[in-house]
Design a protein that fits this description.
Probable transporter of a GTP-driven Fe(2+) uptake system. By secondary structure, the protein is an alpha/beta fold. It has two domains: 2-162, Rossmann fold; 175-235, Helix Hairpins. The protein has helices at 14-22, 65-77, 91-103, 115-120, 127-133, 150-162, 175-188, 195-204, 209-212, 217-234, 238-257, 261-270; strands at residues 2-8, 26-30, 37-43, 46-53, 81-87, 108-113, 124-125, 139-141, 258-259. The radius of gyration is 19 Å and the shape is globular. Bound molecules: guanosine-5'-diphosphate, potassium ion and magnesium ion. Magnesium ion binds at residues 14-15, 56.
Length: 271
Amino acid sequence: MLTIALAGNPNSGKTSLFNALTGAKQHVGNWPGVTVEQKTGQLKRHNDVEIVDLPGIYSLSPYSPEEVVSRNYIINEHPDVLVNIIDATNLERNLYLTTQLLETGAPCVLALNMMDLVRKRGINIDPKKLSQAFGGVPVVEISALENTGIDQLVETVLATAKKEEYKDRSFKYSPAIEEVLNKIEDLAGLTGPSARYYAIKFFENDEKIDQDYPLAPAIRQEIRGLVDRLEEAEDNDAETLISNGRYDYISHFIHGVMERPHQKDKLSTSD
Ligand code: GDP
Ligand code: K
Ligand code: MG
């Protein structure tokens, strides 16, 4: 039995893709303890593959029940593959969540959805360059509305599920932040694919992390000390340092990956 989870921003097309993948075989309930809808279904023509539609989220912070449900599911239930559905007409904004999903260490496939609209609007996206920006993560272009690219997505997802070795697709923050993250991993004894996720949560002093991963008070204090010193040196709070790091990383590669029509015009008139 394989489990494939769908994660993405609200209105990125998760439910449309879920329906395209599962057809009529669906089960709707609630996630335990919260009134957030849980939808599961069977992949068409693969009755040994379950699809889980996670709630729509913009980040993996602990500030909404949807975010908590999604992160608990990804971290604790270990889906075989996490499909990150991206509204490709809003690529840059959607990639903020992508950076976080990759940091969880879950095996990911990026599904660039709304490609029908992207083409109509004359937006150019280079999926190979996008893949390169995230350590070679598989990228598939789809339209959940027009039902295109779905077979290729399924093929890619099943191939990813079969891969045994773990590959880190997360990007690097500034050297100063990376140094602290590495020390946190050592101090907390974090290992395995989700080590980086926990290190970043400790760095951010995430309000739910103590429940998820209790540490000895002395170690917790030592980590606080490291982060406090960096916050002082950078004159910024830890959460902002991390979110700025993500935005900076995306904005540094996005122009090589995506071109909007007016940008093309500007380029051609300037030379
Ligand atoms: P969710 O909030 O992520 O579950 O997104 P939905 O599946 O409900 O889709 C949000 C809206 O986008 C709906 O109006 C869909 O019909 C539309 N939509 C979803 N996928 C596509 C697509 O590939 N192309 C276009 N043009 N519209 C889409
Ligand atoms: K919706
Ligand atoms: Mg939905």
